[in-house]
Amino acid sequence: MREDLQGPLKGVKVIELAHIMAGPICGLMLADMGADVIKVEKETGDDTRRMVPPDVGGESAAFMMMNRNKRGIVLNLKQDADRSVLRTMIAQSDILIENYRKGTMERLGMGYEELKKINPGLIYCEISGFGRTGPYAERGGFDLIAQGMSGLMSITGEGPGRAHVKSGAPVSDITAGILAAMGVLAAYTHKLKTGEGQKVDTSLFEAGITQTYWQSAIALATGVAPEPMGSAHPLNAPYQAFQTADGWITVGASNQANWERFLKLIDAEELATDERFVTNELRMRNRLVLEEELTRFLVVKTSEDWLDLFEQGGFPAGPVLNVKQMHEDPQTLAREMVVEVEHSRLGSTKTLGLPVKFSITPGAVKQGAPTLGENTEEVLREFGIADHLSQAILKKTRNKETG
Questions:
Q1: According to the model, what pLDDT value does residue 171 have?
Q2: Cβ atoms within 10 A of the Cβ of 275, count?
Q3: Pairwise CA distance, residues 375 & 73, whole Å
Q4: For the stretch 53-80, what's the b/e string if a residue is b when 16 or more beta carbons lie within 10 angstroms of its beta carbon?
Q5: Which of 162-171, 239-248, 249-258, 379-388 has the lowest mean pLDDT?
Q6: Class assignment of domain 239-327?
Q7: Three-state DSSP class for residue 124
Q8: Cα dihedral 73, 79, 81, 84 sign
């Protein structure tokens, strides 16, 4: 690993009081871009540590994915001494991320109004199920619930009248973490200009809503709620997955020029003058018939044959890969989206890479996720925590490890 891979956020100090996914993803994004993210865990650890199987040498694969590039310490925030330690750390930090239920931080004496007294420039990021205002502010939140309530499950699936299906990926969790990172960096930019900190508030519910831009545009314009369309697009056709002689491919005839190029490449130019398919509006109106007509042409060749032909013809198309195949794809590897990092206990492990590239300040995944409390001693020393407090906390951590 190149030593100059410091990232644009080098020198930014982040305290992560977050568990499971959305909050840790926010921390992960910042850490991969060079921030020093210190993950504060309870004595039993982030619940993701118990999301097994699968595990790698006894370490949760899910935890390792969400928490690489971070340092980890253990504090018991029910105890005065540990809360005092945390306040000392927050006073010297730039950003705090938390995803507790509403009121938890206030009960601990560490709500935003209290913390900004000791650190006026603090960026305080709250990630919750439904946001800190509104009638649902008190509710806890999970990705599944957010997908259902945001409308996502109503547009995901094979078609109208079929069972509701959530997205295979926890998109509201992941999107909430990315939105939080975006909000934090916007607030940090403001701080650099003015010295003023602020609170950043986003939620899984809002993250799910942002995934409905096309469908919301349709509903707001027509008053009709869109329904699931399988792999098809709500505004363009054909733009979906099609079966071939030996599998599935995706094709993107998203404008008239690509539609005509597509027909020429599959030797179906007669469809260009078919009155049902002449314009995109007509193709959308007759989408199911169009799918049947195109499938007749596409099932006669293999996926590889079609993809080679489409690449030569400059037409956008691709294979439908499973996750393992995606990991092995040459473009994935060329973009360093699967990388190896050193875990302190397991040695070399694989994880996903940083999806944003910088020409001058490249970020990187430089270290594996911490074991429980792994960095407690070095972090407390860096923050100048009083020695007697450090020793008490370290003793508890060591007792937990040996127990």
A1: 98
A2: 8
A3: 6
A4: eeebeebbbbbbbbbbbbbbbbbebeee
A5: 379-388
A6: alpha beta
A7: strand
A8: positive
pLDDT one-digit tens code per residue, 45-59 = 999 999 999 999 999
Give the residue-averaged pLDDT of 84-93. 96
* DSSP 8-class letter at 394: H
Q: Which of these, 22, 2, 28, 279, lies nearest to 14 by C-alpha position? A: 28
Predicted pLDDT at 6: 80
Q: Which residue among 46, 173, 246, 329 is the active-site one?
A: 173
Does 329 qualify as catalytic in the annotation? no
Residue 29: which of 337, 338, 353, 336 has the closest Cα? 353
> Measured between alpha carbons, how far is 199 from 112 in angstroms, rounded to an integer?
7
Distances (CA, A) of 389 to 16, 88, 155, 355, 394: 21, 12, 53, 40, 9
Strands 59-60 and 55-56: antiparallel
Report the C-alpha gap between 327 and 339 in whole angstroms: 10
Name the pairing type of β-strands 347-352 and 338-343: antiparallel
162's tokens: 């079929």
List all residues 6 or more positions away from 134 whose beta carbon is below 8 Å from its beta carbon.
none
pLDDT in tens, 285-340: 999 999 999 999 999 999 999 999 999 999 999 999 999 999 999 999 999 999 99
What mean pLDDT value characterizes the chain? 94
Q: Which of 110, 126, 129 is nearest to 118 (CA)?
A: 110
Say what the alpha-carbon torsion angle 213, 219, 220, 221 is, to the nearest 10 degrees: 110
180-194 pLDDT per residue, tens: 999 999 999 999 999
Structure tokens given for 172: 């509201």
Domain ranges in the chain?
13-211+336-402, 239-327
Q: What is the CA angle 70-72-74, rounded to 5? A: 160
Q: What fold does the segment set 13-211+336-402 form as a domain?
A: Rossmann fold (3.40.50)
* Three-state DSSP string of 3-67: CCCCCCCCCCEEEEECCCCHHHHHHHHHHHCCCEEEEEECCCCCHHHHCCCCEECCEEHHHHHHH
Structure-block tokens of residue 138: 């008190």
